[in-house]
């Protein structure tokens, strides 16, 4: 038996089912949720095999969608034995928490809910941090941090029914308020989501009014903050409160409609065996621009002109990062480029 007790807003149907629909990446938008007599919970797409979401061994006897958006399974004694809130995807809803070690993954786009390129993780050290999905959990790869490192282990990110978003440590101590208390709860619901652009936002929706969800708080006002937004060999430039992706000199967009694919050379690379390799290229400077430091050679105590010459005379050198009198030779592709002040 499935009992649907809660609200269900079509434009956010995947969000309200939260972690339950992590398998939706594998089935069509018209998939059907099936609760079998043996206690299995299945997803049936318009084609292909059924996907087992919950196995029969868990012993589910009934299911319910709660007003919070939490989808729960009960055993025959009406005890909750499984909750979708324990398996978040890109969203947390009111009364839901993101526990230490858990993370939210962005979608590819607003219309494609496959896993995207950004993540928001509640670290076990108490810090709430954002990274690109294919990066380690270390400071050089973080583009957002709550600054609560070491304030308590086993922290949680929590969202109350009034839109109050905050961090607690394992002892229940408030480490940080991300939003204020006091948003209305009258016919209004809230959710927090890491969006496809890598920024996580708090949304509200009035149940008595038609229209979209409203943004009431954002982790950043700079849409170029998310590391890797523009793909390989490209960097992000703020443009009238929007993000503009620009290719490195000598590169062109792989797909003008999808910046996440980055940029590729618009010239033919010379082999190191070529006699003209040292005369084949010109060097262009990108001032106040940094990127991931994956260097194969580092020259200390040098000046910019010497760094430029050293790269020009090395046929393996395709880029050089010059910072604090240190010249770091690198090969392409470059990723996570960003302009600095």
Automatic annotation (TrEMBL):
InterPro entries, alphabetically? Bulb-type_lectin_dom, Bulb-type_lectin_dom_sf, G-type_lectin_kinases/EP1-like, Pan_app, S_locus_glycoprot_dom
Q: Which GO terms describe its molecular function?
A: kinase activity
Q: Does the keyword Disulfide bond apply?
A: yes
Ranges for the Apple domain? 272-341
Per UniProt, the keywords (alphabetical) are: Disulfide bond, Glycoprotein, Kinase, Receptor, Signal, Transferase
- Mention one GO biological process in which this protein takes part, according to its record: recognition of pollen
- Full protein name: Putative receptor protein kinase ZmPK1
Per the UniProt record, the source organism is Morella rubra
Provide the organism lineage as a comma list. Answer: Eukaryota, Viridiplantae, Streptophyta, Embryophyta, Tracheophyta
């Amino acid at each position: 038996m499935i009992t649907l007790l809660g609200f269900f807003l079509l434009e956010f149907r995947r969000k309200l089912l939260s972690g339950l629909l992590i398998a939706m990446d594998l089935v069509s938008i018209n998939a059907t949720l099936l609760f079998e007599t043996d206690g299995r919970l299945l997803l049936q797409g318009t084609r292909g095999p059924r996907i087992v979401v919950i196995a029969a061994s868990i012993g589910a006897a009934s299911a319910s969608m709660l007003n919070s958006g939490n989808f729960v399974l009960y055993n025959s004694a009406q005890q909750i034995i499984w909750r979708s809130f324990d398996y978040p995807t890109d969203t947390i809803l009111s009364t839901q928490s993101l526990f230490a070690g858990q993370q939210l993954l962005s979608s590819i786009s607003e219309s494609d809910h496959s896993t995207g390129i950004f993540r928001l993780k509640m670290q076990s050290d108490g810090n709430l941090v954002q990274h690109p999905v294919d990066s380690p959990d270390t400071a050089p790869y973080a583009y957002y941090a709550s600054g609560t490192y070491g304030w308590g282990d086993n922290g949680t990110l929590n969202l109350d029914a009034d839109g109050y978003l905050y961090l607690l440590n394992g002892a229940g101590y408030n480490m940080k308020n991300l939003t204020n208390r006091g948003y209305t709860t009258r016919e209004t619901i809230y959710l927090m989501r890491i969006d496809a652009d890598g920024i996580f936002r708090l949304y509200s929706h009035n149940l008595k009014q038609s229209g979209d969800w409203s943004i009431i708080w954002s982790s950043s006002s700079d849409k170029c903050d998310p590391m890797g937004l523009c793909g390989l060999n490209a960097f992000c430039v703020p443009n009238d409160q929007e993000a503009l992706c620009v290719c490195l000199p000598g590169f062109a967009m792989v797909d003008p409609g999808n910046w996440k694919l980055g940029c590729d050379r618009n010239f033919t690379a010379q082999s190191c065996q070529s006699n003209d390799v040292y005369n084949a290229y010109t060097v262009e400077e990108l001032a106040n621009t940094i990127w991931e430091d994956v260097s194969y050679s580092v020259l200390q105590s040098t000046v910019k002109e010497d760094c430029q010459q050293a790269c020009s005379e090395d046929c393996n050198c395709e880029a050089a990062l010059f910072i604090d009198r240190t010249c770091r030779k690198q090969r392409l592709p470059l990723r996570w480029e960003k302009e600095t002040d």
